[in-house]
Structure formats: structure tokens, C-alpha cells
Amino acid sequence: MKQKQRRINLQPWQDSKAKPYIHLEGVSKEFNGVLAVDDVTLSIFQEEFFSLLGPSGCGKTTLLRMLAGFEMPTKGKIYIDGVDVTRRPAYDRPVNMMFQSYALFPHMTVEQNIAFGLKQERIPKAEIQERVKEVLKLVQMEKYGSRAPHQLSGGQRQRVALARSLVKRPKLLLLDEPLAALDKRLREQTQFELVNIQEKVGITFIMVTHDQEEAMTMSTRLGVMDHGRLRQVATPNEVYEYPNSEYVADFIGSINKFEGLVTEVDDNHILVDSEEAGSELYVGHSADAPVGSHVKVAIRPEKMMIDHAAPNQKKNVTKGIVRDIGYLGDVSIYHVELKSGKIVLATQPNLVRLAERPVTWDDMVYLFWRAENSIVLTA
Amino acid sequence: MQNKLSPFLKTVVTFGYAFLYLPILTLIIFSFNSSRQVTVWQGFSTRWYTALLQDEALLKSLWISLQVAASAATLAVILGTLAAISLVRFGRFKGRGFFGILTTAPMIMPEVITGLSLLLLFVGLEQIIGWPHGRGIFTITLAHTTLCMAYVTIVVRGRLADMDVSLEEAALDLGARPIKVFITIILPIIFPALLSGWLLAFALSLDDLVIASFVAGPGSSTLPMVIFSSIRFGITPQINALATLIITTVAIGVMVAGWLMHRKK
After folding, report:
1. CA of B197 to nearest chain A CA: how many angstroms apart?
2. Is the per-residue pLDDT at A342 higher than 90?
3. pLDDT of A2 above 50
């Protein structure tokens, strides 16, 4: 949704000649016989804002900690800018991290906190002062340099933590749930600020989050993780519109799925007979599913159209009874029960006011969608 | 305000504090008594303070006690902090539970047993390797260190466990080596615990009679030993004067420490 020109142009993963900036090669991590991260191979490019998304315990934080140098991989290699850093300790990597708890040193002022990293590099005092000032300005905290961390609000602490991790100009900045401690309104505002700052400094960001909305809004690409494995790595748009598995489809947003049997396969469509949907499903693109195989056809609720009158199409149509309506203000979610007993969700924008809404409880309605808007899930 | 205490509670509290502090108050008052009798008030005088300053045996034992307490407290803080760090920060190493019990055991061990076993150890060591040579201030200091270290370990351990591990990780991440992290991040944050651990150890050592009696040698009697042995010949108000001085010093020390820690926050 943050669509700046540069950002659109930045798609190095589509260029086969582009050199990855961060590269993980078959990285695994075992804790007491349990695989927390399982054979992850991943390339991230310069200036990307990459998100690792997944439920808690999926291994995303462990992966981040291996990049930071707090955990050593059991197997595999990690390269940053072409250099193998797999065995390097945290203090010897061109990587900085912003912690979920912010981890500001309580016995130091804001300025001292930010200067700490520069002092370790034995940079002259005058330059340290200048760089601290510069980064405080970047996060709009110039006035708070002499405050102690406990005198700051949550949002201000978050800025200081960001400033402290940026001031060393790392090749890679890691963010561990950077916005989790903020309230909702502040979080939304900070999302855009963080993206703006990232574009300004041009540092590669890798963020860990369990909040799909956050990952979708901020990232150039995201990786969905489950049980230590990367399930899909793609742009937010691709992950949402073309999830490669049921797991990813379910994790990001909600989705309707119909089981069925493939009856016809072509280069640009698939025909699926689904008893559950009570209709023949016509999917407008190909998938790796031979005739006779069982697949699931998935359609996002907002791609479903709902009407009393039968639509002018024979395929991708089903009907049912409205059982429930979730009113969210801007949109309403209709829960429609099909003949097979399956509940299908359809989201419609509330173009007219509530009282004038044409479709209401216990109405018999038709649900239909365009062939291009459904996808076939084989995994 | 529902802050009023019930009459019953008031009585209990009054009696409780009276029970604790009246004897000390009496002791302070009688240190200014001109009579030789400890129990009969005759008039105000500072003669016992003068006498105290001339009692060389008592002053010498006080000096020994202070020396022992200061060095034992310092050693205990160093060792106790190391023990606490290894218990809290080094993960679940083999024998961690056992090590934890071992470090805190002297706290629950009867002092008689600690004293006796240490005496046997010192005697045995002297016979085998010729060290420590005889018993005296040095052996008392060692014995008190083992006792105090247990308390320091517990105090520092609690503070370390409360400290957010990501503070250390953040410092490492910003390029500080582990030693530097310890000096610039961990030490300042756990400093209040080190200070209170030191004061606790100092007080424990100053107070100890039993262990010191076992491991002391000729010419190394600590203050509690001298006071205790003087009871047999009847207490002189000099002891009251000394106790008053110690209480005053401790009270001032605690107030200063409290003020310093409060100001830091």
C-alpha cells in the first residue's frame, strides 16, 4: 500500500543475474533434538524490507537470532554481502538488531544508548556526537537526547531503539516484532514511518512478525514459516492472491475452500467437479493437478459476489441461505450455508446503509465469482 | 481514608516494636550512665566512652572485626557474583542444580558444624601442605567468606534473573565483547544488588561469634568474641558505649546507602 516509485522498481528477485545480499544456505537449528529451523534456503537482496511471518513457535525468531549471531546454526551457512558469517559472534557482524523489548540500557541516557555502539568502534568523540544527532533527527527525537529511557513513552522508546540500531549503519537490520508493544493506532502510524526511514537510509531490513497485516503493509517480500520451514516466499500480493498451499492460504486472511475432482486440464484452465460447492468450478489458470486428482479450489471472501437473482453463468455458481451477517462498518461478512452444509464467507462493501441492505438473514442467495479469481491448492 | 489501624492491631504493633527496640534504646541510654552498674541509673556521663577509647584490647578486637568483615564481604561479593552469573546465565550445564545447592548450603548449615568442619580443614591443610600457617585473621576471613558468599549469591542471583537478557544481547549486537558487556552493562545494572550484598555480608561477618571462635587463633579475637568472653567477668558499660557507636555508624551507613540508591533512580 506504500507504493513509491523506487519500491515498485525494486524487484531484484525477478532478475536472475542479481546477486543476493543476504544468503542462507540449508540452515537448520536443533534444540535438544527438536528442529526449530528446518533446512531454510533464502536469498534477500539489498535494500529489501523482508518479513518473516508465522505463528509463535514456527522458528522465525530463531532464524532471526541466527542472523544476529546469538544462535549458531546446527547445519548450513549464512552469507552477508558475500562473506560467510556463520561462525562469527554477534559483536563481529555487520548486523544490528532492534529488540522486541527495545532493550534500552536503563542506566544510560538516550544519547549514551545511541552512542554505545559507535564507542565500541573507537570512533572519535566529535564524530560520535554528530552521528548521534543525525540519527536522533531521523527518528524525530532531537529534544530527548538527555532523557533516561524510563522517562519516555512506548512510542518514543521504540524510536530510540531504532536509532540505536541504525546509527552503526549496519549492512542488515533485524527487527524482532518491532511494533508489538505499541497500541493499535500508534502501530499503524509507525508502520509507515518505519518504511519511510528504511527507504531513506537504504539499509536491508528483515522483520519478524506474527501480524500478517503488518507484514503485508511494510514488506517488499515476505516469507511464511511453519514448523521451522519456509512455506512460501513472495511479494505480499502474490502470497495473498496465489498462496502455494492450504497452510499459507489459511494463514493470510480468510479463504473459502471447496474439495473436488479434476475433470479437465488445459494450459489456461482447470475444471473441477465439486459436490461440496454443488457446482462445476472453472479455474482460469493452470496448476500442477492431473485429471482425476483431488484438489481444493479456493476463493477469497471479497472475491465472492452475492445476489438474489441467478447470475448469467453456469460455472462457479452456488446457492445457499444467509445464516449470519457480520457487520464491520465498512464491509459486511455474509455467512452462507450451502446445500452440502458448508458455510461460505462472502465479504461485501456496504455501499448503502444498513437498513436498505438488499440481502438479509435467511435469504436464499446466489454466490458466484470470476474464473480468474479462484485458485487451485494442491498442497 | 480507610487507613486507620484497629486498636488490637495498634497494640500488637506497639508491643512488637517495643520488644525489638526497647532493649537497644535502654542500651544506648545506659551507655551515658555514670554508674558502674549496668542496671541502675545514676546520672549522665560520657566516662564510658573515654574508658572505651583507652581499652586497647577492645579497640584491637574491633579493628580486627572490621578488617575481617570488610575483606570477607569483598571476597564474598566477588565469588558470589561469579556463582550467581554462572547459575543464571550459563544455561542448564551439567551439575547446575547441585552447584546451586552447594553455594547456598552454608546458609542453612548449623554454624557449629560449619565452624568445626572449617577448623578441621585448616588443621588438615596445614599438616599436608603447610598452608594456611596457623589460624588467625586470615582463616576467620576465609571462613566468613564461605558463609557470606551464600547470601551474596542469592541476592545477586535474584537481581540477575530479573534483568532482561536482551540488554546483554543488545550490547553484544552493538559490538561490545563479552567482558565489555559485563563491565559496561551488567555491573552497573546489578550494582545495587552488589552493594546490598556487600552490606549484608559485612553485617553477617561483624556479627558472627560461633564460626570465628572455631577458626580464630591467638591474638585474633574478634569483637563478638571479646564481648562474649567479657560477660563471664560481668559486662562493663563500656560495651554499651561501643554498641551505641556501632549502631549509630550502621544507621548512618544504611541511610546513606538508601539515599544514594534512591537518588540513582
Report:
1. 20
2. yes
3. no
Burial letters for A128-152: b for 16+ Cβ neighbours within 10 Å, e otherwise? Answer: beebbeebbebbebeebbeebbeeb
CA distance A218 to chain B (A): 24
Per-window interface: B 175-214 vs A, CB < 8 A: 175-177, 180, 184-185, 188-189
Q: Which tens digit of pLDDT belongs to each residue from A161-188?
A: 999 999 999 999 999 999 988 888 899 8
Asked whether the predicted pLDDT for residue A7 surpasses 70, the reply is no
Q: What angle do CA B232, B235, B236 make, to 5 degrees?
A: 140
Q: Is A28 exposed, middle or buried (0-12, 13-18, 19+ CB in 10 A)?
A: middle
Consecutive 10-residue averages of pLDDT for chain B (265 residues): 77 94 90 82 88 88 94 96 91 86 89 94 93 90 95 93 94 96 94 90 92 92 89 80 87 82 64
Place of cell 529534544: A143
Which candidate in A105, A151, A175 is best for mutational testing of the B interface (most B CBs within 10 A)? A105
Are the C-beta atoms of residues A371 and A270 closer than 8 Å to each other? no
Residue with cell 513472495: A234
Closest C-alpha among B174, B265, B102 to residue A103:
B174
- The DSSP string of B37-85 is -SSS---B--HHHHHHHH-HHHHHHHHHHHHHHHHHHHHHHHHHHHHHH
- Tell which of B94, B162, B169, B173 to mutate to test the A interface (max A CBs under 10 Å): B173
| DSSP character at residue A220 | S
Rounded Cα distance, B239 and B244, in Å: 8
How big is chain B, counted in residues? 265
**Is there a contact between B174 and A164 if contact means CB atoms under 8 Å apart?**
yes
Surface-to-core class of residue A373, CB atoms within 10 Å of its CB (0-12 exposed, 13-18 middle, 19+ buried): middle
Which candidate, A83, A55, A58, A56, places its Cα nearest to that of A69? A83
Nearest CA in chain B to A96: B173
pLDDT at A370 over 80: yes
Q: Which amino acid is at B63?
A: W
Share of chain A above pLDDT 70, in %: 97
Task: Please report the sign of the dihedral spanned by the C-alpha atoms of residue A276, residue A277, residue A282, residue A284.
Answer: negative
Q: In 3-state terms, chain B is what percent helix, strand and coil (to 5)?
A: 80, 0, 20
Note whether B173 contacts A91, CB cutoff 8 Å: yes
